[in-house]
């Protein structure tokens, strides 16, 4: 979870496209490590594809951060339940 939180803090709209893509690759790997079949991992993969295809014209950056924030909240709650 700490790695996911750190990556989320690093991911800002001001990053270059290359840095956003590299960060999303890392986020995707962390989410798949937590749960390979999660909706969060699937949603990030979808957004990653959009970012990769559209580059600078990609205008759905808030969706990326929202998915990551939702994953952090969800998994934090799951950890507290144990």
Give a short synopsis of this structure.
This protein is an all-alpha fold. Helix content is 78%, strand content 0%.
Question: Which strand-content bin applies to the residues?
Answer: under 5%
Largest sheet: none
Q: Which series of helices and strands comes N to C?
A: HHHH
Shape: globular
Stretches where pLDDT is under 50 for at least 5 consecutive residues are none
Termini distance?
15 Å
Radius of gyration: 12 Å
Residue share in helix: over 70%
- Total number of strands: 0
What class would the helix/strand composition place it in?
mainly alpha
Mean pLDDT: 94
Helical segment count = 4
Kindly describe this structure:
This protein is an all-alpha fold. The chain contains four helices and no strands. The protein has helices at 2-10, 17-34, 39-54, 61-81.
Note the topology.
Blueprint: H1 2-10, H2 17-34, H3 39-54, H4 61-81
Helix pairs in contact: 1-2, 2-3, 3-4
């Amino acid at each position: 979870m700490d790695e996911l939180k750190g990556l989320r803090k690093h991911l800002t709209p001001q990053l270059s496209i290359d840095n956003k893509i590299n960060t999303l690759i890392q986020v995707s790997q962390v989410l798949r490590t937590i749960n390979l079949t999660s909706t969060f991992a699937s949603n990030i993969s979808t957004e990653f594809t959009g970012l990769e295809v559209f580059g600078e014209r990609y205008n759905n950056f808030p969706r990326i951060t929202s998915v990551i924030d939702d994953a952090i909240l969800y998994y934090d709650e799951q950890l507290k339940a144990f």
